TrEMBL record:
InterPro entries: FhuF_C (IPR024726). It comes from the Bacteria. Pfam families: FhuF_C. Residues 198-219 form the Ferric siderophore reductase C-terminal domain. It comes from Actinomadura macrotermitis. One of its GO terms (molecular function) is 2 iron, 2 sulfur cluster binding. This is Ferric siderophore reductase C-terminal domain-containing protein.
Length: 222
């Protein structure tokens, strides 16, 4: 499929909100602040995570790392799931990111390309998002903060469920459920009468002053 079709699809889903935006303007190549995504520099990620921990008011780097990983997963899943539900899965090979603690996570896709959904949207998304982005990100985050696999994939699953916003085609729900049935997301959580519930904790409750829990937290009574 053409790059123009991918650009049009991403522009359409960006209208759903800031979490759904991936910039495709080639002029962004002149901006040196963009970094290749997935981030593969442990030193840079450690610095960002440390500064983020300070901003959150926690002395635990792993808490900040967990929340940042979930934020990145949300930024990946939201536009990708929305585009897939409309029949197009962008290729994230040219993806870049830009972020500083306190700022929103920005994404830019250089040389847009992708695939037209042929019946296996979940498979295409798994290849592009899970294998291409989240798996290598997981390795870097583990090196930086020693986060457990169960926590990280629980964060990714929670981010996927959170991407199911009003305004998405009905196909989005079926695609998300199929992804949750595949490794490494299998067993990380599921949908029930009260919505999605995960089986691990993202550690957000440790952010001062403490006590706050996410709506899908495994620590909440169900």
């Amino acid at each position: 499929m053409t790059g123009a079709e991918v650009v049009a699809a991403l522009r359409a889903v960006a209208g759903l909100g800031p979490y759904f935006e991936i910039v495709t303007d080639p002029a962004e190549a002149a901006d040196p602040t963009w970094r290749p995504m997935p981030e593969a520099d442990p030193a840079r990620l450690a610095d960002l995570t440390g500064r983020y921990a300070e901003r959150l008011g926690t002395g635990e780097r792993r808490v900040a790392a967990s929340i940042l990983f979930q934020g990145l997963a949300s930024r990946l899943w939201s536009p990708m799931l929305a585009a897939a539900a409309r029949g197009i899965v962008p290729d994230l090979t040219g993806l870049h990111w830009r972020w500083a603690p306190g700022a929103p996570i920005a994404l830019w896709l250089a040389g847009p390309a992708g695939w037209r959904v042929d019946g296996d949207a979940a498979g295409l998304l798994h290849r592009s998002v899970v294998e291409g982005q989240l798996v290598p990100l997981r390795e870097t985050f583990r090196e930086v903060a020693g986060l457990a696999d169960g926590l990280m994939w629980g964060n990714a699953a929670s981010a996927l469920a959170g991407a199911l916003r009003p305004g998405l085609p009905a196909a989005a729900g079926a695609i998300a459920r199929e992804l949750l049935a595949r490794e490494p997301l299998r067993g990380t959580g599921g949908f029930g009468a009260k919505g999605f519930a995960r089986r691990s904790c993202c550690l957000y409750y440790k952010v001062p002053p403490g006590g706050e829990m996410c709506g899908d937290c495994a620590l909440l009574p169900r």
